[in-house]
Amino acid sequence: MSNYTAPVEDMGFVLREVVELEKLCSETGADASTIDILDTVLEAAGKLAKEEIEPINKPGDLEGLKINNAGEVTTATGFKEAYHHYVEGGWGSLQFDPKYGGQGVPFVVAASVQEMWHSANMSWGLCPLLTQGAVEAITHNASDELKQRYLPKLISGKWSGTMNLTEGDAGTDVGALKTRATPEDDHYLIRGQKIYITWGEHDMAENIVHLVLARLPNAPEGVKGISLFLVPKILVNDDGSLGERNDLKALSLEEKIGIHACPTCVMSYGDKTGAIGFLIGEENKGIQCMFTMMNNARLTVGLQGVSVSERAYQQALSFCNIRVQGVAPGHKEAGPIVRHPDVQRMLSNMKSITEASRALTYSACAEVDFAASDLPTESLSQHKRRLGLLTPIVKGWCTETAQEVASLSLQCHGGMGYIEETGIAQIVRDARILPIYEGTNGIQAMDLVGRKIISDNGLGMNELIFEMQECANKDSLKELVSTAQLSRFKDSLYALENATSLVLSNSENKQHSGQIAFDVLMMVGTITATWQMLKSLDKAKIAFESNAVSADFFEEKSKTVNHFLNFILPRYLSNFATISSAS
Amino acid sequence: MSNYTAPVEDMGFVLREVVELEKLCSETGADASTIDILDTVLEAAGKLAKEEIEPINKPGDLEGLKINNAGEVTTATGFKEAYHHYVEGGWGSLQFDPKYGGQGVPFVVAASVQEMWHSANMSWGLCPLLTQGAVEAITHNASDELKQRYLPKLISGKWSGTMNLTEGDAGTDVGALKTRATPEDDHYLIRGQKIYITWGEHDMAENIVHLVLARLPNAPEGVKGISLFLVPKILVNDDGSLGERNDLKALSLEEKIGIHACPTCVMSYGDKTGAIGFLIGEENKGIQCMFTMMNNARLTVGLQGVSVSERAYQQALSFCNIRVQGVAPGHKEAGPIVRHPDVQRMLSNMKSITEASRALTYSACAEVDFAASDLPTESLSQHKRRLGLLTPIVKGWCTETAQEVASLSLQCHGGMGYIEETGIAQIVRDARILPIYEGTNGIQAMDLVGRKIISDNGLGMNELIFEMQECANKDSLKELVSTAQLSRFKDSLYALENATSLVLSNSENKQHSGQIAFDVLMMVGTITATWQMLKSLDKAKIAFESNAVSADFFEEKSKTVNHFLNFILPRYLSNFATISSAS
């Protein structure tokens, strides 16, 4: 029996009603036929996730990976087959440019489908995630020739992609990297060692396209002297067929606390003659190119947080409905533990955080679609600003809360949660990477405070606060939540205005900004998540009245939003007190 | 190189100045010579922890345990030797009755020594922890004959002890257990299966004394029908020598997310003829007897939280001092990451939580000494009330915060934290059991709200609030913290009064009590921890002025307490808002 069923009802609701997919399609010029087939797409993806990708999740954790002396990696049983079905189904190409074989579906719809892969199997899901990043970096920065040669196979998923940033002494400080690139003919020779390369080597795809940051001879120091190279595992002939092996290999796999079925490789480039690589974008502008892939990757990691929360919640709910233990208040006989108020609190925390993080993440993913469209300049810059602002919030808040939800799920299992057999321990172990990779959450917090609030003098944040205030003042909400709850939200917006002012007035004091940045991140995360919950409830009422959702769905949403307002929103109070007192 | 050095300076400070060990000895009639040799004891224990018990921690995690077909368990390399040195050093007998070979040292001092074992090696430390519980249950409930026969060997550590409560369908609901006890001659025959038996079988001690909950024929249903039995692995002859094997064995070991070197056994009793057991206390009063061991075990699990936090903090600090990455504000060159403000925030959160949880836990452990003394009735009941009140707070708050501190330590390691090699992943995995065993933290929350606040109509809580108010009003604190910080503490006490009233006025509504119980637990934990921090700072100033601590120590304590007031105390605000809004 699969432990995961895709929550297609809530996904469809958020896409249609909260994100307003129809409006999005019409404003961005995206193909509106997506809307008609949305349910079919979600159902089909859900089936693949449930029937093929989830069943290999736990076995993959137990079996792990093998690497031989030649550096060849064998994935766990069934991984390759599931991946082939994914490629055959065209799931990798949803949001990409039809010019290169993509399907031109909005990114936000592709994101909802990706949510399923990561819920079903995080180790497995990371392979397409990295490929998506490579496609984006190539699409936005590479020459037409490289695009023609590499994009169609990457988009189809026949080839997979990687990001090679980190070295032993260059993690967060990527500018410290030492891998060298030497020009030769129409290409470069790459020499160096990279670590933590996710899906750096494996047997699921015919070829692997590595995007590698390296330094040219005499390049300036730091981030201004790094360039981005496309370095294929197998060289590609002019006719597109696969040629010789490039001079690169996986040296070893890391022993990690989780995602045991995902190969995290130490990669060596150019041990013999130098690995042949092709420049992407301009020389010494590699970091900008990398950010085009990293920003969306950060959103997608936030999405993985949603996936983990959803999966952990489903597992807890099904356990608590079955596990009989003790007589709950109002009952006379022992019954399932879901009856106990403290268990209900844990489940409601999990459910409401999951739904809030989904709405928040999807709304940020929709900004990717707007930001890539042909909207008029002013509107376009506003969407870009919003996307930039929401990215660290989604990455930070949704991955921090995913730790909490996974841990709560384990807690619901009692002693059984601590035993590997139950499976929830794996979810917790897998999830722990989320606050670390694609920029630690400390880095997200600094990005939010430094680049997104201080650098534009609070413009984007104030736009956001204004929009949330408009939401808070909607008459329709007064019937849906209590006056006290609505006041709490309004108070939080007022506090957020104050916090923003404090950040701006202390902007010269980097010690101060750094100390409070994480609290700012969590405060903004909680408040924007609340905004999305209120919006969801408001839209659910309208959708219910027009028979677009069931009475049950509306009622459940109402309970969940009310719980969030009482049990989660108040957290901003402690962040704000810390920000104020440390200022 | 050992990854742990016992924090003897802070331990000695808390014992001498915060807990006021001298006063404790004189009021409880404990042997005051402990005070003179305190430093020697702490140094010697610290040496054993650092040099013998810590070095086998990581190897033990990797090697794990072996069980053969006969149910014999082999512990990891070095575990047996370290245990023998522990027994030879008399470390197991510190706090016990000299009548049975104990050393009559106050419990709070023994607790500080135990903190070290669990920091050094949680898997290993659980063996003495369980033995301590068995000694307490036997001391308070068993016949003189059983005491004479079993206590000296358990107290010395030559034999170890276990607690056998849980069965497949009886976890939190211990009253649902099915193990049977049939009277025969001077003993009983025990038949049944128990799960999650920590150190249920191993090769470190000559004998294992199992304390087993079971049902007599025709016993009433539920907890009122369970009795406690002493069931030795090897029967003991009248002359005290070891006789035949009893009819019990370990069937299997659980595969857990952590504490891999600690045998968590499925135990089978009476497969052949019935396991011979001896009644402890009266028939059908087993649950009361079990609670005499469980209450102190709960405190000790809270203490393990302190241990984990200390260990995790030390590891993060040493990593952040070595790891070079990026240029911090105010610097011109790349340097160790400890210079970065967000890293400093994480380290200060870790350090201040660790010291607060130590002071809180030791102060609760001191209540064990008072509660066991010959004080006048009124004073005695006040100490017993305080001990009862603090027990779920210490167990709950110190183990929840230990998760946070362990996770922060992993986060400080960046990508390396996710790799098992660094060792911090093991700390996180090991620590995850703490909120579960000896009563989940949900159960602690219910115990606090139901048995400790509602049942005595707020008496104990109001005594505690009054004492904290007295502390808040001390003139000496005004020079040590800001007016705003002191007001925040006073506000928190006022909120706690309100929260207590809300709990009491809704006491009939068990649904309500259950929903808010966890927030009450965390709120009280944060506030009592703050109280202990303010007390610590006040005492540190006095100690500094009398040269009892160094200027550095006082200054560090001042920074740590100030950080706690700004970054940790504000958390009560969100708990209180939740308690209020859900009421």
| Stretches with pLDDT under 50, minimum 5 residues of chain A | none
Quick check: average pLDDT of chain A?
97
How much helix is in the residues of chain A?
A: 55-70%
Tell me the radius of gyration of chain A: 24 Å
* Architecture (CATH level 2) name of the domain at 56-89 and 121-284 in chain A: Beta Barrel
Structure annotation, total helices of chain A = 19
Got a strand count of chain A?
12
CATH class of the domain at 56-89 and 121-284 in chain A: Mainly Beta
Q: Looking at the chains present, what oligomeric state does this protein adopt?
A: homodimer
Q: Which fold does the CATH topology of the domain at 56-89 and 121-284 in chain A refer to?
A: Butyryl-CoA Dehydrogenase, subunit A, domain 2
- What proportion of the residues of chain A form beta strands (DSSP E)? 5-15%
Shape designation of chain A: globular
* N-to-C span of chain A: 53 Å
Structural class of chain A: alpha+beta
Sheet with the most strands, sense and barrel status of chain A: 8 strands, mixed
Q: Which two chains have the most extensive interface, and how many residues on each?
A: A-B, 74 and 74 residues
